[in-house]
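INPUT
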Amino acid sequence: MIAIKIENLTKIYRRRHLGKLYKTVGVKNLNLEIQEGEIFGLLGLNGSGKTTTIKLILGLLFPTEGKISIFGKLLPDRIVLNLVGYLPEIPYFHKFLTAKEVLRFYCNLSGVDKSIQEKTIDEVLNIVNLFNDSNKRISEYSKGMMQRLAIAQSLLHNPPILIFDELVSGLDPLGIREMRNFVLNLKEKGKTVFFSSHLISEVEKVCDRVGILHKGSLLKIVEQKDWQNKNLEEIFIETINTVQ
Amino acid sequence: MKKILSIAVYTLRQNIRNRIYYILVFFATVLIFVYFLLSVLGGEESLRIILDFGLTTIEFFALLLVIFSGVSLILEEIESKTVYLVLVRPIPKWYYIIGRYFGLVLSTYIGMIIMYLIHCAVLFCKGWSFDINYLYSVISSFMKIAIIGSLAVFFSLFSTSSASSLVFTFFLWLLGHFTSEIKFLIKKAGAPLLKILLEIFYFIIPNLQYFNWRDFLGSGLAPSWLLIAFLYGASYCLIFLILSIILFNKKEF
Amino acid sequence: MKWSTYFLLIFSFCINLGTYLYLEKNFVYPFKIVDISKPENKLPVEKYILLDLTGIVFGVRRISSDIAWIQVLQYYGSPEDENEEYNHEHKEGHCHHGINFGGGKYYDLLKLCQRTIRLDPYFYYAYLYGSASLAWNLNRDDEGIKLLDEGIKNCPKYWQFYLYKMAIIYKKLDKYKEMVHLLEKVIKEQNCPLMVKAILANIYKRLGEYQKSLELWTEIYNLGMSEYYFFAKEQIAEIKNLLSNYR
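OUTPUT
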């Protein structure tokens, strides 16, 4: 089954300044299908449209043209977001709350049953190794701990699709390895993972398929077998250079 | 409803744990005790001094609380991107606005109730006996805060700048108390177009004089119209909350 | 936007309009709005005009009136000139203002009282205290009556204004018996300024009704600490002395 289907998706940012209209292309005519159970990486330089694509799927941005469906349901559909877990590039939480309070809050919003909430929260905290720090205020958390808390909140409602923006941004080498294992673990559980990154080395270690995005356009989709023969970095640079 | 309540409780926690909240409530409480000492300047009317100064101080501090929290309530979450993790949940966007608003108003009410209880304790020490007009003043102030809260939320989404939202909201607070004088000016206005414009302006600004019961304490005014005034206030809040929801729905993040 | 949102917006607007129209008809703003550009409506104390208007604009008339009242008491409670001896009859020694002298001139007392009651026309105590001070302490009966007339105009149902006015008129006409009779009625009211009791006690003493004067001073003394406490103690001792000499 197709987990996420993107058809002719275009997003043009319009900004008015001193009477003049400025247009910036976020994504242009994007067509993409992500299969259920696969790990799909969206690779691109800074400003290529990776975050824009993710925000369009999540409804944080409105498309100028095109359609997005999640498991066949056309967006915008607020209810279907229950099937998606999101990890932002830089997670932000309210500094005055504790980790448990934050997770309890997101459980309520995601409609997790009250009877299993505490159990679910403890489970996800154990998965991300934050159980012992769960009653500390977030203001006392390090960046790595915030990242782990962000992963925890994305798992609360056991979504079949997980969308991560800049998967390993700001993580140390140990953190990167933990993240990699975590993603592979998700695949074993049958989850669909869609993430964006500009770190080719990480992408090629976990993904089944990779899409190369450049200046808002999807240039190429590369399968795992392709970069086993040829280095993904070389494929990426070649693709970019061909366009330029 | 449960999800709106969840957002409201989250907002309440956030506000109550904010240092500014404690500072304002503490400062107002200290002022109430100061009035107790200064009331001797009022001679035999010392009780009146404590009553009036206390009611006005509590309302003023609540105004500061609601305006400063209200204008940054949603803006801050948008700027810090904390709002993303709420908006990617399966909830309608209006839940967020309503929940945040209720949390804001509730946290302000809690601060006000603490201050009113201390005020009453000080008044009882001075030999005051409970008067129903005090309750009317308290409830009227609550309504004022609810209206100003809805305006603060609206302006924060309309202008996208905390400073201008603050100014607009405070300005409407002032104009809201000036409505009787504006009505007088309408009568005095010569040109029919000016009269119509002033009438429209008079209708749009919230008439906070309906909720200024603390100023009418000695006037012997009968509260027969209070219930309708509350309906007016509630509908006013609802209009601005709906407009806020419309603005928020159009927002991209 | 969903149709339900439009519907709710229009519905709220209709409720708002309906309640607005009802309130326009039924809500009577308790304070009179006057055209302050006209000379007869000008606020009485020029230096406080800005402050007073600010109080009105901010919707804090009562508290502005309280501040104005504190200023009245501070004005009336302070010596006019610290080096000047008061030119009135009183015993040697300590001078307590506002009792049997209120000494000095205090030319601005009426204006300051008017300022207070124009900010809050329902500040009954200010009218009563102000008019009693003007009439009995400063012997400016007409100013006292002027203040009460304003009270009668603002609060025609507050009967005590008529009582005080009558008492001052009797004083003007030297009809002390009738004046005392009215003051006796006045002091029985809960909100009667303590000063009025002290005035009556003093009048009794002047008229030779020492027993009645003693009873009133004892009542004032028994109220506990007030601005008249120590003076009441002195008067009690003095009147007891007078009574024993008389016997």
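end of record. The mean pLDDT of chain B is 89.
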